[in-house]
Write a structure and sequence with these properties.
The complex is a heterodimer of chains A (about 400) and B (about 110).
Chain A: H1 4-30, H2 38-65, H3 95-112, H4 114-117, H5 123-146, H6 150-153, H7 162-180, H8 196-215, H9 223-251, H10 256-270, H11 279-303, H12 312-330, H13 346-379, H14 385-390, H15 392-397
Helix pairs in contact in A: 1-2, 1-3, 1-8, 2-3, 2-5, 3-5, 3-7, 5-7, 5-13, 7-12, 7-13, 8-9, 8-10, 9-10, 9-11, 10-11, 10-12, 11-12, 12-13
Chain B: E1 2-8, H1 13-20, E2 29-35, E3 42-46, E4 49-53, E5 56-65, H2 67-81, E6 89-95
Antiparallel strand pairs in B: 1-5, 1-6, 2-5, 3-4
Helix pairs in contact in B: 1-2
Classes of the chains: A mainly alpha (about 400), B alpha+beta (about 110).
């Protein structure tokens, strides 16, 4: 029996999550690069969306959500073959809607990694890497956690993708940033963001879209979705204030780019916990995510000298992992959360979450090293020095972001 | 005739224009330019990382004027554009050999 209310909300949420990638993430990243590379970033976001959509239908969805294997699903629903048009799941959702909702998550996750290799990766390499990465990293991890795999069996809490989305993308982004090498001139002579206003506009779309991401993950239009939206918003607001205060105290000037980066850190941090915690916890998660992500940006870029250009690991990977750990604490009913599964304790849940982080981290790391090696051998990861200097827009795509 | 080129802080442009009108300046040309002097660029901070900008945005004003008001123009620009901070800019004065008003073909001082 199809539930009209739940179906209506999930169709809306699906649109919101796609809106996060197109144009939200594209503009967020686009403003942070050189003017000569703006179109390359927009183009990569757009193309990954199209590519993943097709792959998701062909086999991605089925391998994630069909069958009850511990590590991978099966191909019974490849091409949505055999899925009845009016078949309803436990929440009264048509499977086409669940398929589309999950597709938008599979789209944004590889798109997040664009921030790590922005301004220097070959277009073909981006496409090939994203396709392989979808099947070798996203699909298995999503199956482990959301598709009834071995981490789901252990009762892991990852409501909307702290591990599935943010940690997988964050770790693989870090690997790619190391393997492709820093931008010319990094760290002292790189060009500042060409259009901070564009980054702000993109961040606002991400913020709004995140309501669909987290509240949609309730898979129903009810109290769970309402509270997920509430804590999502409050965490973003708290982390924004945290970045403003840190920059104001440290540099004497609270920057706009800092404020919007804080919001994204707060959103990534609350994501895995958003269905399990209360509004008070949202303030704590926003605070923790804001501070830790801020510190990690400096650690990665300046201590380790890794050019994860737009801070994908420091903001998404770290934020997601922090949220995974804190979900175990604030899911506690005494702290305003929904409580644990029967027989589970805070300590026990914390260990499950740690296991999830370790497994996701290790798998993402090893798989992306291998994928990057394959792509390097197949077509090369990096553009030549002349293309990098002139910008990818004109040399690769034959057009310019600004004709003035 | 003199040709006066002033490189100033962009935010002082309106003040300079207001100072020039009363002393008889009939027209001027403005362009947005970038450059550096002793200021040597500036530092911007994004996400805690410093970016050195080698060229700083400036405004270039160009004025053709008769000799009798040239000194007053330089003085007016100096007063109106000055903030006292490094990066206030420079004014250059050149001898101007000729001029023509395109619409009427008037030459020399009549063209100004």
């Amino acid at each position: 029996m199809i539930d009209a209310g739940n179906t209506a909300w999930l169709i809306t949420a699906t649109a919101l999550v796609l809106f996060m990638t197109l144009p939200g993430l594209a503009l967020f990243y686009g403003g942070l690069v050189r003017a000569e590379n703006l179109l390359s970033v927009l183009m990569q976001c757009f193309s990954i969306t199209a590519l993943v959509s097709v792959l998701w239908l062909i086999a991605g969805y089925s391998l994630t959500f069909s069958g009850d294997g511990d590590f991978l699903g099966n191909l019974d629903k490849a091409m949505l073959f055999g899925v009845a048009r009016d078949a309803a799941d436990a929440n009264g959702l048509p499977e086409s809607v669940f398929f589309m909702f999950q597709m938008t998550f599979a789209i944004i996750t590889p798109a997040l990694m664009i921030g790590a290799f922005a301004e220097r990766m070959r277009f073909g390499a981006v496409m090939l890497f994203s396709a392989l990465w979808l099947f070798l990293v996203y699909v298995p991890v999503a199956h482990w956690i959301w598709g009834g795999g071995w981490l789901a069996d252990r009762g892991i809490l990852d409501f909307a993708g702290g591990l599935v989305v943010h940690l997988t993308a964050g770790i693989s982004a870090l690997v790619l940033a190391i393997m492709i090498g820093p931008r010319a001139g990094f760290p002292d002579e790189v060009t500042p963001p060409h259009a901070p206003w564009m980054t702000m506009a993109g961040a606002c779309m991400l913020w709004v879209g995140w309501f669909g991401f987290n509240a949609g993950s309730a898979l129903s239009a009810g109290a769970g979705a309402g509270m997920a939206m509430t804590v999502t918003h409050l965490s973003a607001a708290t982390a924004t204030l945290v970045w403003i205060v840190i920059e104001w105290a440290k540099f004497g000037k609270p920057s706009m780019i800092g404020a919007v980066t804080g919001a994204i850190a707060g959103l990534a941090t609350i994501t895995p916990a958003s269905g399990y915690v209360g509004p008070g916890a949202a303030l704590v998660l926003g605070c923790a995510g804001g501070v830790i992500c801020y510190v990690m940006v400096g650690v990665i870029k300046r201590r380790f000298r890794i050019d994860d250009s737009l801070d994908v690991f420091a903001v998404h990977g770290v934020g997601g992992a922090v949220g995974i750990l804190l979900a175990a604490v604030f899911a506690s009913a005494t702290l305003g959360g929904v409580g644990y599964a029967e027989g589970q304790t805070m300590g026990g849940q914390f260990l499950v979450q740690l296991l999830g982080i370790a497994a996701t981290l290790l798998w993402s790391l090893v798989a992306s090293v291998i994928i990057a090696k394959v792509v390097q051998a197949a077509c090369g990861l990096r553009v030549d020095a002349e293309t990098e200097e002139q910008g990818l827009d004109l040399r690769i795509h034959g057009e310019r972001g600004y004709n003035m | 005739m003199k040709y006066i080129i002033a490189i100033i802080q962009p935010h002082r442009l309106d003040a300079v224009r207001e100072a020039l009108t009363p002393i008889g300046v009939q027209g001027l040309t403005v362009s947005e330019v970038r450059g550096f002097g002793r200021q040597k660029g500036q530092t911007e901070i994004y996400r805690g990382a410093e970016y050195k900008t080698h060229y700083v945005p400036k405004v270039k004003i160009e004025i053709a004027a008769n000799n009798d008001i040239a000194d007053a123009i330089v003085e007016a620009i100096g007063t109106a554009a000055r903030t006292g901070h490094i990066g206030d800019g420079k004014v250059f004065v050149l001898d101007l050999e000729g001029a023509m008003r395109v619409r009427t073909s008037e030459m020399g001082a009549d063209a100004l």
